[in-house]
């Protein structure tokens, strides 16, 4: 029977509709649904949706997080077993679990959906969210036996109910020979005599080439199970090496390290030349792979074949490598990074900064030594940075958190997915991540986790941490200077300990997945390092609202204090004049007359007067910035050297930077730390001006400072000559 006149794909959920459904089902909490679709109808409906997925026009994917609940704490084996008929609406019991078997191929799009039965043959639709899954190589394949912890019914679009899982850790996939399975579902998988390690390896290789990585992993695993102590060592090394490679692709670095430790130790045992290096235990190799050091204490370079050495390097980079010097080959890294090559093989440099408690802002990042403006404070590889093409429609998606009514676009949604995948697969990476600021989420919703326990992967907590700690990152910071650039959302753990200041002493820049943090002014040992989370809004109210909404704090920096003190009336007048000047500048366009410019400058002085309070003597005057940029550029366009120098100097002053030219000596007397592209441009205009006045020494000194500032804002020197020419 065909599905009756479907109007839309009801497997795909929408945030508003879901919110309404949740509201509606509040009164039914704990009740057993009055009616449900039975087996045949469920399967027919599912098949229709599968056809729709293949043939329909696909919308961007919606990932929806319902109001939060904690993942189940109990192991499946210790939970009380329930059945489909026992489930209530929206009522999860963390002590319960259900055993299910999948009856169909899955539908995988925004979530993974399949039809399942329990031991009594009762059927239901199962929706698993936040799984790293694909139609080509599905996790929830047909005939699979799985356990769902804390199961319940959740209202679905079109008045049905399904079993919905949000935490991937609430889903446990069981081997078909597991003794806990009902007898009828158990299959003892004896390996056929004709299948050999080599055969499984070949089948795995074929699947790998077809990008069916999960299935390839299963084949290699079956091959591994056939290995015996007397197996050919080349075959043993090979199967572990293959598994390691697939695990790397699937971001399962802990498992990859385990496989490689086995491969290396088997290789070492079989190679008589190796014995003298005493490297042979898997635990020694495992420790080396995880130790974050570039040192080759086990002398791997001299004993390993290329294929194992390359994998070792890959895993060490992915688990995090550290160096103690700020030396990076920036030209090579700059040349390497591109849309297809986001991930740079570089080590972290974190040894000259440290995380410590601050007096008012929780933990923060502090300098362990003195730094000068322009110095590299730290460099960090991304913990997660999704790679995708911006014009690829098939990666379009959004993430909705119904609990707090927030939404994020593709950049944040894909980062969330990658974080869930990485944290689920790699217990060794969890501590660093879950130590981060989650705004008190876990303290309110979770439980005490001791040192020995596995840290639970709570998707709601991940999203809280993501929102507070992620950074928007262009492919290369330098691109932002010339073209409007799309940004990704990425995650850099150490950098996330930076607290915000409107007048910061550092700037973040990116080259692919490596973040460089440079000092925007001199910093003394022991000083807190800060950076701007976002460029400050002109009015204090707008600024504080943004900080409050996203990060839950109110900024108390010197600029915010001064802006609050001037009062609403003064601020309103400042904004009125600012808007007036902005409109005039737009009207005058790029070729204003001298008369018009003089008139504009007079009006600008009115705005300057409002700032002339003592409070701003050493502070930026942000409302003056844009009109002054307009004047500096307009005078430059008219080749008026003196005026260009005057307004470029003023522009720097309005950013809180005071310069002096004494004879031929150029110096920066004061610097609030607000170094940005406009400041570099102001220096460029100054250098041009002094050059045309034949003050070549001054011009050269200004250009040197411009080069340092250019490096601060782009992270490297790439393009500096062209920019400053
Ligand atoms: C990215 S984290 C920074 C590290 C954080 N202080 C910690 O202890 O993990 C962002 C959080 O730090 C705090 N924070 C950052 N800058 C602040 C500031 N200027 N004033 C007050 N709190 C701030 C806020 O709680 C914010 O949500």
UniProtKB/TrEMBL annotation:
InterPro entries registered for this protein in UniProt: Gramillin-biosynth_MTr, SET_dom, SET_dom_sf, TPR-like_helical_dom_sf
Name by which UniProt lists this protein: SET domain-containing protein
Domain spans labelled SET: 351-534
